[in-house]
Hints:
It is a single chain. By secondary structure, the chain is an alpha+beta fold. It has a single domain, classed as Gcn5-related N-acetyltransferase (GNAT) (Aminopeptidase, 3-Layer(aba) Sandwich), CATH 3.40.630.30. It is 32% helix and 34% strand. The protein has helices at 12-32, 49-56, 102-116, 131-139; strands spanning 3-7, 62-68, 71-82, 85-93, 121-127, 143-149, 156-163. A hairpin with a 2-residue loop joins strand 3 (71-82) and strand 4 (85-93). The mean pLDDT is 95.
Amino acid sequence: MSDIQVIDVHKEDILRQVGALIRRAFATVADELKLTRSNCPYHPAFLSDEALLRDLGRADAFCFGAYSQKEMIGFTALLPKEPNVMELAKLCVNPTHRHGGTGLSLLVAAQAYAKKRGARKLALDMIDENRRLKEWYLANGFVPTRTVKYPHLPFTVCDMEKAL
């Protein structure tokens, strides 16, 4: 079982841990779907710590780390999207700790945090071709709201949401 904590990505050591974890966790998806810096430079597997800080270091963002024996093994963030809606962003688990409940713990913590702050809905966008992850979100109450094929991306984006 992992310990979920609200974390501050403005702290350099935390940002380094988050960056390394995100790149490692999302690299498995990049490998599986043959994403590269050339065909998908903004995929989380390729983002620098500075780019992550721009994305996640907003004053209105809430970041969560999942820890096992002081090691960060999971991460997610909540970003306000529109009134009463928060975006669940960059939910990831270290590949060596997957399928042990860490992702669900992060999701439950983020849902509770969002609801406590008045959100009525969680939204996310994901790679539609990542069937295993999509099934996981469906099993946890998310529903697809649309799919979009952007010409600059080598995959289809699936927008999903969940009522809180």
